[in-house]
């Protein structure tokens, strides 16, 4: 049985997440499964007939693909295998954490690596991804502290 590590990737993933995942994958001779979960755009319900639903979803998929491709390029060196998976979170009540947990269960992952939550008064509205992953899988979760990491990928620097 091969060892696999699931890494949750967001649009603003920092270099510390990639470094930590690469270090662990090399030490365990593990494959990396990079997972990016993006939200399904919800159009204005009052004017649903005027929304171009297909183009909105296509744009979000393209954006998600670009995020995943950037992440895979950072994992390209030094690990036995790297795989990318992208999921669209719909309006069915699913959460990012639940979707990452389902990938862990399906791939029989040995570890999940996630970035820490960012600080801000508005963050109470956001999902606690790590808590939801822990709730829906028995796979161990490692949180990489990104609070003071400004070594973000160059594409994201302002």
UniProtKB/TrEMBL annotation:
It holds the Pfam family Usp. CDD domains: USP-like (cd00293). It comes from the Bacteria. InterPro entries: Rossmann-like_a/b/a_fold, UspA. Residues 1-144 form the UspA domain. Gene3D superfamilies: HUPs (3.40.50.620). Belongs to the universal stress protein A family. This is Universal stress protein.
């Amino acid at each position: 049985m091969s060892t696999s590590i699931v890494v949750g990737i967001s649009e603003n993933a920092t270099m510390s997440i990639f470094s930590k995942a690469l270090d662990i994958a090399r030490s365990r001779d593990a494959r990396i499964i990079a997972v990016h979960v993006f939200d399904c755009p919800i159009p204005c319900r009052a004017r649903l007939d005027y929304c171009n639903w297909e183009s909105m979803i296509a744009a979000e998929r393209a954006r998600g693909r670009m995020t995943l491709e950037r992440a895979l390029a950072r994992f390209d060196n030094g690990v036995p295998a790297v795989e990318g998976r992208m999921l669209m979170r719909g309006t069915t009540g699913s959460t990012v954490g639940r979707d990452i947990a389902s990938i862990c269960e399906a791939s029989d992952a040995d570890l999940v690596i996630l970035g820490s939550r960012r600080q801000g008064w508005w963050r109470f509205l956001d999902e606690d991804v790590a808590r939801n992953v822990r709730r829906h899988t028995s796979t161990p979760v490692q949180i990489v502290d990104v609070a003071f990491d400004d070594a973000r990928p160059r594409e994201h620097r302002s």
